[in-house]
Amino acid sequence: MEIDAYPARYWHFADDGRIQCDLCPRDCKLHDGQRGACFVRMRESDSMILTTYGRSSGFCIDPIEKKPLNHFYPGSSVFSFGTAGCNLACKFCQNWDISKSKDMDSLMDQASPDAIANAAAESGCKSVAFTYNDPVIFAEYAMDVADACHARSIQTVAVTAGYMHDQARRDFYAKMDAANVDLKAFTDDFYFKLTGSHLQPVLDTLVYLKHETRVWFEITTLLIPGKNDSDEEIVAMSQWIRRELGADVPLHFSAFHPDYKMPDIPATPPSTLIRARKLAMKQGLQHVYTGNVRYQEGDTTLCPHCQATLIERDWYQIVRYRLTPQGHCPDCGHVLAGRFDKQAGRFGRQRIPIFLSAS
Questions:
Q1: What is the number of alpha carbons within 13 Å of residue 161 lying toward its C-beta?
Q2: CA torsion sign, 318 to 319 to 322 to 324?
Q3: At what angle do helices 113-122 and 139-150 cross, to 10 degrees?
Q4: What are phi and psi of 249, to 5 degrees?
């Protein structure tokens, strides 16, 4: 079997003879030769295939804080890769050249799950991240890579919009150790008009992660001027997170820059991120961070009990790490939520492209 014609899971025959994809709430129904909205799941005769299995848009070693994950082995390196396509249609996509790509020939790097896991191990990476585009749409490939990683004691990270059906969600997160979930806004109007999707399935994913898994997860919201950055929406979202997920779930506010189909919207000013952070913390969230701007206070992890500085960062660099080997605050003994080693990693801010031979 060719590596780019891999049998996909999560589909059934609809009453009208088409194949319906059961991976995400788009529920695409396909005739022979048709592709889903994600472009990478295709009907071939009487089955569905994943056209990007074993094919990547590139490999890179990043700091884990870039995903962003601030409470998952801080300072460690993560082996990152993605494929092409996406099951959302975000008009503001910041990685549109990858996620919106329909040119399979652009996926020049090929690698089996074992090759990726081996490369991550040889590079000294603590984890492998499925990122750049949403791993939901290449779930079979991501899950196989995760199995290969776990066989080598390497952790796995999903960077995702969280838009999945329940059975696929359960299978997928059974293979993940951590996730960063994009909560793109807190209104269904925003989701429908600007992403072509809906809010509730994303909230369902977050609740599932919190209450039915041991996956460590953090949340990112890209604040877009005039679209999802009002005080009212930020307060409502923060209150929901605290009520449904808990005060200790980290929330990252990141800055939009004009791109893709929204080139006329101005970039998010740092003041908006700082305001959002203060509002979220006022609602009781303990760990709120700012991204895509240099604001050291918004990068720093504080003890939620005594407010002592526990992890001080400068961009993606750990400049001070005061957790005890057990993950406690050294001043008051509070246990910090997250996954931590005895010492912080020292990978720093660097980004290292990696090239793999097909295998």
A1: 28
A2: positive
A3: 50
A4: -75, 120
Give me the residue spans of the domains in the chain: 6-50, 57-354
pLDDT of amino acid 97? 64
Q: Could you tell me how far CA 357 lies from the centroid of its own chain?
A: 26
Quote the CA–CA distance of 182 and 252 in Å, as a whole number: 9
- Secondary structure string (H, E, C) spanning the chain: CCCCCEECCCEEECCCCCEEECCCCCCCEECCCCECCCCCEEEECCEEEECCCCEECEEEEEEHHHCCCCCECCCCEEEEEECCCCCCCCCCCCCHHHHCCCCHHHCCEECCHHHHHHHHHHCCCCEEEECCCCHHHHHHHHHHHHHHHHCCCCEEEEEECCCCCHHHHHHHHCCCCEEEEECCCCCHHHHHHHHCCCCHHHHHHHHHHHHHCCCEEEEEEEECCCCCCCHHHHHHHHHHHHHHCCCCCCEEEEECCCECCECCCCCCCHHHHHHHHHHHHHCCCCCEEEECCCCHHHHCEECCCCCCEEEEEECCEEEEECCCCCCECCCCCCECCCECCCCCCCCCCCCEEECCCCC
Which residues 6+ apart lie within 8 Å of 232 measured at CB? none
Parts of the chain with a pLDDT under 70 = 1-4, 96-109, 357-359
pLDDT in tens, 129-159: 999 999 999 999 999 999 999 999 999 999 9
Residues in a beta bridge with 184: none
Are 56 and 64 contacting, i.e. CB atoms less than 8 angstroms apart? no
pLDDT at res. 359: 46
Burial 20-30, CB ≥16 within 10 A → b, else e: bbbbbebebbb
Domain 57-354 maps to which CATH number in 1.10.3720.10, 3.20.20.70, 1.10.10.10, 3.40.50.720? 3.20.20.70
Tokens 């999560």, residue located: 10
What pLDDT is attached to residue 33? Answer: 95
Instruction: Give strand pairing partners of 129.
Output: 80, 157
The model carries a pTM of 0.95
